[in-house]
């Protein structure tokens, strides 16, 4: 292993890290295994990859998985249309007979070809079908893939740090799970959330922080909410409250919850939360 792979992840300026998560990140890097992260949206799965890049000074490459994506798209693309146009019009500086000039690396290909060790984030793998998942891990195990059009093999210059996220919307195959380390990121409890808020708001009033967090968790417990507000929404809500000169922290205790549209992004959720907040103000 090179010096970079021996570096230990210790968190980042805006990322609050518990010891269990730090340990699984570091052991995954030492074992050179992909780390699969599960958890509901807003628990910091994607942000972990950004924190690793910041802490270890590595470039970040992000593969956003789509339901219709084919594995080859993540590896490379052969631009046949541009080659056809170049051959027809003859005004390109590219050598039409050289197919290599029309091969563009996908996100996995970019990570393999990078001159420096990278963090490869494969985001929302559960959107892909089982064949994509298993074939992708074959490539990541072997650290190489073939370009069919040129009969060439692309081998990784450096094994990337691989972070894979899943929102658990669809089960992953047993072979896939068997080839990854796994960690479930639970939604932060109020004590952990206070630490997160303190990182983002260094001089926050203690009463505002407590009342906002209490109100936030109370709103998350409302029945029939389709999209519960996550950490990102809480941070933005506190920013909105701070920006309002007429806002008073004690109003939150009385059920006066302004800017609910910052917390709830779907109309039915917003209406339900607003109705419940209105009823609470009556008592």
Q: Give the topology string: H per helix, E per strand.
A: HHEHEHEHEHEHEEEHEHHHHHH
Mean pLDDT: 91
Alpha-beta classification: alpha/beta
The total beta strand count reads 9
Give the class-level CATH name of the largest domain. Answer: Alpha Beta
Q: Biggest sheet, open or closed, and with what strands and sense? A: 5 strands, parallel
Number of domains: 2
Span between termini: 64 Å
How much helix, percentage-wise, in residues?
40-55%
Structure description:
There is one protein chain. This protein folds into two domains: 3-184, Rossmann fold (3-Layer(aba) Sandwich), CATH 3.40.50.300; 190-281. It is elongated, with a radius of gyration of 23 Å. α9 (190-200) packs across α10 (206-220). Residues 1-5 have low confidence and may be disordered. The protein has 283 residues and is α/β, with parallel strands linked by helices. It contains 14 helices and nine strands.
Short description:
The protein is of the alpha/beta class and 283 residues long. It has 14 helices and 9 strands.
Sum up the structure in keywords.
46% helix; elongated; Rossmann fold; 283 residues; two-stranded antiparallel sheet; single chain; five-stranded parallel beta sheet; 14 helices; alpha/beta
Element layout with pairings:
Blueprint: H1 3-6, H2 19-31, E1 35-38, H3 45-56, E2 60-64, H4 71-75, E3 76-78, H5 80-89, E4 103-105, H6 107-113, E5 119-123, H7 130-142, E6 144-147, E7 152-155, E8 161-166, H8 174-178, E9 181-184, H9 190-200, H10 206-220, H11 231-243, H12 250-253, H13 260-263, H14 267-281
């Amino acid at each position: 292993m090179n010096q970079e792979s021996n570096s230990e992840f210790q968190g980042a300026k805006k990322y609050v890290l518990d010891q269990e998560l730090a340990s699984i990140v570091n052991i995954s890097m030492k074992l050179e295994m992909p780390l699969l992260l599960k958890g509901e949206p807003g628990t910091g799965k994607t942000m972990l990859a950004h924190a690793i890049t910041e802490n270890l000074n590595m470039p970040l490459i992000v593969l956003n998985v789509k339901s219709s994506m084919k594995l080859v798209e993540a590896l490379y693309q052969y631009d046949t249309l541009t080659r056809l146009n170049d051959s027809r019009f003859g005004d390109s500086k590219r050598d039409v007979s050289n197919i290599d000039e029309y091969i563009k690396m996908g996100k996995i290909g970019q990570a393999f070809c990078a001159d420096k060790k990278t963090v490869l984030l494969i985001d929302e793998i559960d959107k892909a079908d089982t064949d994509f998942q298993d074939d992708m891990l074959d490539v990541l195990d072997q650290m190489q893939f073939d370009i069919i059009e040129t009969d060439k093999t692309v081998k990784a210059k450096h094994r990337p740090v691989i972070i894979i996220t899943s929102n658990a919307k669809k089960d992953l195959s047993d072979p896939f799970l068997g080839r990854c380390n796994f960690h479930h990121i639970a939604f932060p409890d109020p004590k952990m959330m206070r630490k997160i808020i303190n990182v983002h708001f260094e001089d926050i009033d203690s009463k505002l922080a407590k009342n906002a967090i209490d109100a936030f968790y109370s709103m998350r417990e409302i029945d029939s909410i389709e999209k519960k507000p996550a950490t990102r929404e809480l941070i933005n809500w506190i920013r909105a409250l701070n920006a309002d000169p007429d806002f008073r922290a004690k109003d939150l205790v009385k059920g006066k919850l302004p800017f609910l549209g910052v917390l709830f992004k779907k109309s039915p959720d917003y209406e339900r939360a607003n109705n419940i907040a209105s009823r609470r103000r009556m008592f």
